[in-house]
Amino acid sequence: MKDKNLALLCDYYELTMSNGYFLSGYGDKTTYFDMFFRSIPDGGGFAVAAGLEQLAEYIEDLHFTEENIAFLRSKKLFSEEFLAYLKSFRFTGDIYAIPEGTPVFPNEPLVTVRAPAIEAQLIETYVLLELNHQSLIATKASRMVRAAMGRPILEFGSRRAHGADAAILGARAAYIGGCSGTACTIADQNYGVPASGTMAHSWVQMFDSEYDAFKTYCALYPGNATLLVDTYNTLKSGVPNAIRAFREVLVPRGVTGFNIRIDSGDIAYLSKKARAMLDEAGFKDCKIVATGSLDEYLIRDLLLQGAAVDIFGVGERLITSKSDPVFDGVYKLAAVEERGAVVPKIKISDNTAKITNPHFKKVYRLFDKSGKAFADQLCVYDEVIDGTGPITLFDPDAPWKKKVITDFTARELLVPVFKGGVKVYESPAIGDIRDYCARQTGLLWDEVKRFDNPHTYYVDLSTKLWTVKQQLLEAHK
Amino acid sequence: MKDKNLALLCDYYELTMSNGYFLSGYGDKTTYFDMFFRSIPDGGGFAVAAGLEQLAEYIEDLHFTEENIAFLRSKKLFSEEFLAYLKSFRFTGDIYAIPEGTPVFPNEPLVTVRAPAIEAQLIETYVLLELNHQSLIATKASRMVRAAMGRPILEFGSRRAHGADAAILGARAAYIGGCSGTACTIADQNYGVPASGTMAHSWVQMFDSEYDAFKTYCALYPGNATLLVDTYNTLKSGVPNAIRAFREVLVPRGVTGFNIRIDSGDIAYLSKKARAMLDEAGFKDCKIVATGSLDEYLIRDLLLQGAAVDIFGVGERLITSKSDPVFDGVYKLAAVEERGAVVPKIKISDNTAKITNPHFKKVYRLFDKSGKAFADQLCVYDEVIDGTGPITLFDPDAPWKKKVITDFTARELLVPVFKGGVKVYESPAIGDIRDYCARQTGLLWDEVKRFDNPHTYYVDLSTKLWTVKQQLLEAHK
């Protein structure tokens, strides 16, 4: 049997390094690690943070089973003292994170971990994979939802997801990003993402005729009939048979909320023709659902062409974020404690974009008097921005470009999730996360939200943090 | 608590249709469904089938819990009779599948399910997601392994995977496709994929100096030292410090199997320079591991440039199949039984590529006298190709292009996995699947294996099957 405990869902080097820290006296050293990302998928203007609830659950439960220990022992690489330590391992550190649904930007910590070196190291893979995955899908969903201009988007991609978790938690993340529901039933049971569905071609094929299939379905689900009209011929057979079934089965019962679904062919053309046929038949309220390899670009294009689509079902291009399937979050050491003092650490790189922001940090989001977010500022942990005094913004790559701002409000983004190993964060209900995401996205300027060449939102360093970074760069020269 | 039982990892329409089949008397109707794919990722010449072991385990265990039933009842859409049926649900049908590791081609069934309509319908999502995911990653791994021309490839992508299953089963699939190991520890514990690892930048940063970090690591893991040399400056600091640590810690112990890893910068340039420095120091056996956003194109390019890389570590571009993250498997009704006879069914489409191959089918792979595979032939279930008589091949889209073959051997690809609900297939050990994959890939012509414009391998229909298909197309006109 497979061990379902996921403690060993970590990179092997985390274990060899941890054993090394343990044996060389660094195991208890307090460290600060940041999880942050470097680029926004699809060249977008912002990403949507997601995955925190599952990360918190993982860390709260994190422990090593007898089977895990026996497996590691079999590798003949780990000391018995370290294995004994793992046996009673629990996470004892602090974690700060940006709540799910928040629009986020490159180079700001989405998660900061303050913990003994071993603990911080052993959670690296899970922190990354959970946040990278769900943020990727929430970000993609947000793009599609914006493209649909108010029309609902349903997530239909389970069958093309990268495994079970990708299907289920992908549906969750898509909902946070603004989708209206999913086809993935278990995502409803476990996470409260509303599940719905229509019918497959096999339903239509199973019956002696398309009309029989439609009639039977309408009789079974009078309040939930979405008839798939493209099994044989959308306009010559599917739509007329659907109209007949609506008329003969649903109209006599006084039902009005029914739909048709088009899954293939030229959606723009077929939807307009189908719309005219439905209107002509008196079914102006019948909605048209379009599915079939859609993404934000195709949705935008369909609407520009005047496609008569009321609801979009999206599959593979959302659940895999097909056009850009990698969220590039990394997990980097930012500081250590030495004799109680926080000592900032930096990772240098020939590639300046890969140089890290050192130190234990805070992130403030700054809003102008109209309430719009205009910049995030990374500060040293002991700085406070309360909006009472002016603030100096400058481009960290061009520090002579300065701007003094007086009339603004500030909100701290990182909130405590663990304190001394105890979970202190209660994840909001999924619907509340989704609403929060929509509200926070609404606080961004349209220029940040456009798909093509969006404005680069400012993520600046405070003067104090910038100075620390320059000193470390100098010291490493 | 989340329900870990995955019975509801199905599209909601599978449940509404099943309830509909149940209530309208179609529930027990014996159906045949094929899982097949339409296009090979990355424009390649073949794909590698994977995921069958997990699919078989899923189906063997498939059942609905009290929680599942209660959840469905809360939807007020399903009949009590159907819910009672689900309560005692077990899969009772037959399943045939192409074994994992087999090179496969578009439009041939990787899985054929013969089962009562409801059972066949309820497993649709899982059949697709498991085979689509693992076949995607195995196929991508096979491409990267071929690009590396015999050098080992290690899978390092967990942190960028789409969730936990994507990391773990992705590592399994990558191994089947030819990778030599993974960084994902639990993939070793649960599936026997050899896990290994090096060190992170954080290890180097944790110590007072890079040299201290290297020295400590070599002393701890003399037989497994792979030193990461790019934390500060690869050629000025990393490689010299590694050489010093090897010389001072490992040479006195007589150890020789050690490596360095380069994770950033210009790998071609740095690896050649590092190679020269290592050779100069007398460490000709020290291997160079290269990592950092690699894929088959970059690997091929690096080797063309003469990069001195001995081992490649690949991450996000393998575990997400970044350049083409969708394996487009579908699940389509191929036949039903009526009064004991198999009645073929077809799905028509305006797009001729989307018209299905009807009927309960066999797949034969045909080998020429040199042992190379030259075509697959789809046949009706009761046909036999045993290589004793000549066979007529023709292009199903251009049936006048005929070819009679006499000197060949044939092998049936679909093997029984379930018979009457009982699992009759024992999955081979993972190493055997990997070896089988390498051997079977070796039976393909080089022209099918090249990356750019590969030869399109023939997947033909037998005359009998082609005739059935034409008759169904005529009947639907």
TrEMBL record, chains A, B:
Nicotinate phosphoribosyltransferase C-terminal domain residues: 361-469
Organism: Sporobacter termitidis DSM 10068
Reaction catalysed by this enzyme: 5-phospho-alpha-D-ribose 1-diphosphate + nicotinate + ATP + H2O = nicotinate beta-D-ribonucleotide + ADP + phosphate + diphosphate
Known pathway: Cofactor biosynthesis; NAD(+) biosynthesis; nicotinate D-ribonucleotide from nicotinate: step 1/1
NCBIfam families in the record: NAPRTase_put, PRK09243.1-2, PRK12484.1
A molecular-function term among this protein's GO annotations: nicotinate phosphoribosyltransferase activity
Domain of life: Bacteria
GO biological process: NAD+ biosynthetic process via the salvage pathway
A Pfam family the protein falls into: NAPRTase_C
Processing and modification events after translation: Transiently phosphorylated on a His residue during the reaction cycle. Phosphorylation strongly increases the affinity for substrates and increases the rate of nicotinate D-ribonucleotide production. Dephosphorylation regenerates the low-affinity form of the enzyme, leading to product release.
Residue ranges of domain Nicotinate phosphoribosyltransferase N-terminal in the record: 8-131
Domain Nicotinate/nicotinamide phosphoribosyltransferase: 154-324
The protein's Enzyme Commission number: 6.3.4.21
Similarity-based family: Belongs to the NAPRTase family.
Role description: Catalyzes the first step in the biosynthesis of NAD from nicotinic acid, the ATP-dependent synthesis of beta-nicotinate D-ribonucleotide from nicotinate and 5-phospho-D-ribose 1-phosphate.
Descriptive protein name: Nicotinate phosphoribosyltransferase
Keyword Transferase attributed: yes
Record keywords: Glycosyltransferase, Ligase, Phosphoprotein, Pyridine nucleotide biosynthesis, Transferase
